[in-house]
Amino acid sequence: MNYRLIALDVDGTLLNDDHELTPRVGQAVREAAERGAEIVICTGRGSTSALGVLRELGLRGTMITHNGASVVDSETREVIHDTAITHERARRYMDFLRERGIHYDLNTAFDLFVEEMNEEAAAMYGNLLAKPIKTSFAESLPERLVKMSIYAPKPVLDEVESEWQSWAHELQTIRSGDYFIDVQHPNASKGQALQWLAEQRGIPRECILAMGNYYNDMEMLAYAGWGVAMENSPDEVKAAADEVTVSNNEDGVAVVLERLAIARA
């Protein structure tokens, strides 16, 4: 199969656990692009953070960010497609988190806003190449919000998810990592954004290769003609994929690309 579009999750997939792009993975991604595939970063990260990864790859083009809540052009910084959430609906979750002292941020397609930030949160943002804007949410919130991201230790987030089971949710909540829960529009997902982009390009799903490692990747892996889960994925994610490769710490992305997108090109 000649894959025309290759969708790549970033953290836990493209990058290793030290948030590094290894030489073998970088070379494989660039070679796949040189052989004609469109490389699309498809991440829970914000657009500014994802831009840093794309630049490190030496590529440019369209990115799917915020778990599919925004689709942007890396060169013009144009928001091509997004799914915004209302302030009223966002404040319900904000009040819950504020009462419990749990860290969260608010995101537009390119900007990330916080009210407070401790050392742990600052280190996390540094690893993600994100630069938070500190502001007050008391009177007004940023316009065109696409996502709220919650950061806390895994046991804390497990308890949050448990409490939220009794809620009637107007927004979607998704676990995007052991230490993250994202709150966004019900219609926002990597899978739906990837389908939207493929239809804009006229690319059939069988010509799409996707790789990911977490729950927010499952719909994308199921939609793609060939979905690949990393060995470091939870079992449910592996079950949603067509193939399981080696982990992100073993150059899993390169292993797949060298076989499916380079050797066959």
From TrEMBL:
GO terms for molecular function: hydrolase activity. The keyword Calcium does not apply. It holds the Pfam family Hydrolase_3. InterPro entries: Cof, HAD-like_sf, HAD-SF_hydro_IIB, HAD_sf. CDD domains: HAD_Pase. Its EC number is 3.1.3.-. Keywords: Hydrolase. It comes from the Bacteria. PANTHER family: HAD SUPERFAMILY HYDROLASE-LIKE, TYPE 3, PHOSPHOSERINE PHOSPHATASE. This is Cof-type HAD-IIB family hydrolase. It comes from Cohnella cellulosilytica.
